[in-house]
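Quick sanity check, Pyrroline-5-carboxylate reductase:
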Amino acid sequence: MLANKTIAFLGAGSMAEAMISGIVESKTVRNDQVIVSNRCNEDRLIELSNRYGIRGQKRDELNFEEVDIFVLAMKPKDIDNVLSSIKGDIRADQVVLSVLAGIPTAYMEDRLNDNQQVIRVMPNTSSMIGESATAMSPGKHTGMDNVMDAKELLKSIGEVYIIEEAQMDIFTGIAGSGPAYFYYLMEHIEKVGKENGLDIEQARKIGAQTILGAAKMMMTQEEAPEELRKKVTSPNGTTQAGLEALKEYGGGEAISQAVKGAAKRSKEISEKLEKVTIK
Ligand SMILES: NC(=O)C1=CN([C@@H]2O[C@H](COP(=O)(O)OP(=O)(O)OC[C@H]3O[C@@H](n4cnc5c(N)ncnc54)[C@H](O)[C@@H]3O)[C@@H](O)[C@H]2O)C=CC1
Ligand SMILES: O=C(O)[C@@H]1CCC=N1
């Protein structure tokens, strides 16, 4: 149960803001149960606390005792600094939930306290409006009650999938980075729409509604995407011409390579970490 639990974000960038927005909007917890903190930019803390009615606190103002769930939301390169700076202040039964790409639970467990409860999470920025596709993989000491609390919290920012940690890289390639592929697609749709007589706003709305409609069809209809595609495609019609161009220019392969490239980068981040040390 999340009632009366306090959640502290360490890191106040785009991903923290997207999650805070979704959590506050869903009213899963009260606003004063959410704290945001960062390394140095106090203006950003004031901005977020004013915008979402949450508590912004500098690192030295944080009362670690009152926090139940810490959400690590800084860049992967900052992980060592953060783990060493919080180790002395947190207890093993407080949950460390990390959204950092490529940082394994074992890496965090080995650098925090014995039996530290950690959960690796991969959300995306659609958390902002409660539409993230979020994965979570609990660490080896994390109790079921804390897994359930974290799941409830993450439900407030969208759909949640509990996956094997080995699947985190590919999940990151599809869903963590995924929104960017669709935004990139839209940038091209806007551009071609504008070049052919639509204004940018019109092209954006038309393109976004088309993506939204296709996404809803895939969520609600039983047919596989291939079947849905065939229903759009008349023999020798406009769609066939469009798809042929897409194939000729490597559209399908480009999508596969984008997902694989992001997944590979997630794996590389893990591999480049210092080897796990024995405490
Ligand atoms: N942006 C995205 O779409 C997604 C990002 N992520 C992960 O979220 C994390 C953050 O990404 P962004 O928000 O995009 O980055 P960002 O650069 O916008 O924000 C990073 C934040 O961390 C803070 N920070 C740095 N060192 C710190 C420390 N020692 N203690 C406390 N705060 C510290 C910075 O002040 C800044 O507020 C990354 O690890 C990324 O892999 C995961 C899923 C999606
Ligand atoms: O680009 C990144 O590394 C982060 C992780 C997933 C989405 N953004």
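Posting the structure with no commentary besides this: The longest strand covers residues 132-138.
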